[in-house]
């Protein structure tokens, strides 16, 4: 979604957020303040989609491509994630 849609979309999703759940944004760490304004800093996590290695090869059919896991990443099945420690992050300090 676009940044200007973040607040209303987060408001709509808030009712489905589990008590121990988090709202994870893949908007390159630029909208966490907007999200936290709706669900709170303790439930807000930002991320950057650093490597997208999938292709849509037929309607409703997605497959991984031949990209290898870059250093500092781990495979999570159908997606690759780069994990950063929340310690020291401004999101976790509030």
Description:
This protein is α+β, with helices and mostly antiparallel strands and 94 residues long. The chain folds into two domains: 1-49, no CATH class; 52-83, no CATH class. Helix content is 22%, strand content 22%. The chain has three helices and six strands, in the order αβαβββββα. The longest helix is centred in the first third of the chain and has 9 residues, at 6-14. The model is unreliable at 77-94 (pLDDT under 50).
Question: Which descriptors apply to this entry?
Answer:
94 residues; 2 domains; two-stranded antiparallel ribbon; 6 strands; single chain; 22% strand; alpha+beta
What general form does the structure show?
extended
For the residues shown, what is the average pLDDT? 77
Query: Stretches where pLDDT falls below 50 for ≥5 residues?
Result: 77-94
Quaternary organisation: single chain
Number of strands: 6
Q: Write the H/E string, N to C.
A: HEHEEEEEH
Q: What structural class do you assign from the helix and strand content? A: alpha+beta
Largest sheet: 2 strands, parallel
Task: Please write out the topology.
Elements: H1 6-14, E1 23-25, H2 32-39, E2 44-46, E3 54-58, E4 61-64, E5 73-75, E6 80-82, H3 90-93
Parallel strand pairs: 1-2
Antiparallel strand pairs: 3-4, 5-6
Helix pairs in contact: 1-2
